[in-house]
Design brief:
single chain; 356 residues; TIM Barrel; ten-stranded mixed β-sheet; 10 strands
Amino acid sequence: MDYKLGELVHIFATDKCNQNCKPCFREFFSSDKPRDLVKVAKILTENKVKKAIIGGGEPTLIKNLNKVLRIFRDADIPVDLHTNGTTLSYKRLEQLEDLVDVLGLPIDSLDSRIQSRIRAPGHLKQIKKVIQNAQKFDYKLEYHTVATAINVDGVPKLYSGFIKNTDYQLWNIYQFNVNLAMLSTFQGKYSEEQKIKRIKEIQELRGPINHEKGLSDGLLAKFLLMEEKIKNKYSNDDRIQFVDLQNSRSPYFFVNSTGDVEFYTWFSQKRTKVADLFEDDFKDVIKKLHKANKMSWRFDQEDFVEAITNLPIFARLYEGNYSSDEIEIIKPQCHRKVKHLANLWEIKRYGQPMTV
């Protein structure tokens, strides 16, 4: 379904969580502003948004979550609940069944050790149990997989060995966003020792960067090759969606429980506050979002230029946005792979390969 700006809202319900997942990009809210998720829900329903996605942090930790969900249900507004699943006992799933339309759950690998490194120890066993129980209720299931350097090669097996055998609505496969994970780390209340450890873990998930190979061994390259493999083998399953960092985003806005309304572009390393849901008239909120959407690349011109120039050379071949030095440094044996990746990139962007 296509939404106009202001009709699809992603709510950061809380910045608290019972896990410490490495790909997490949660923001930490301003402590000097009161939090009122019920007020957020009432404003949104009164202004007839068409869909709400509630995430966090971990939204199931909020004591009045059922009340918030009931506000949306009474207004006949569908809700997606994105959760790590660790609090969803059979009884809790039963309680939420009439209040949640889509249950979004993370699963990244069928290897418990890898899943533990990305999420938390024991998470794979937990999430499989939740999925098993959720299928006994009237939930639409949506899976979220973050493709990192340590699990990307196993993503096709995750589909064939588990996901395709379950009743699900959508499977989103995301390229790991290193910048947002780093930003969240620096914003979080971590000790210096914890930050150093977490930064090292994030870098391991990003993987090595080798310019002599034209970054054909980088994470974007691995993501494109994984996508190619799955599409070639399972092209009949249109429930699989691939989201690399340069994908255009749906026109929705972020709002947290303090009322901060934020806008996000793919090339930015931050979310920018553009309005206050508690202080601005909703029509003014939408106007400010439209302005941010229209002018975003100008507002963040440095971020935009940096994001373009930081793309691997295979993603810049067709536009010619590269120097001769970059070409010369690539080992000859890597040229064929770089060209193949260029074609994969251009098919995604233009619908056909453009590099000769």
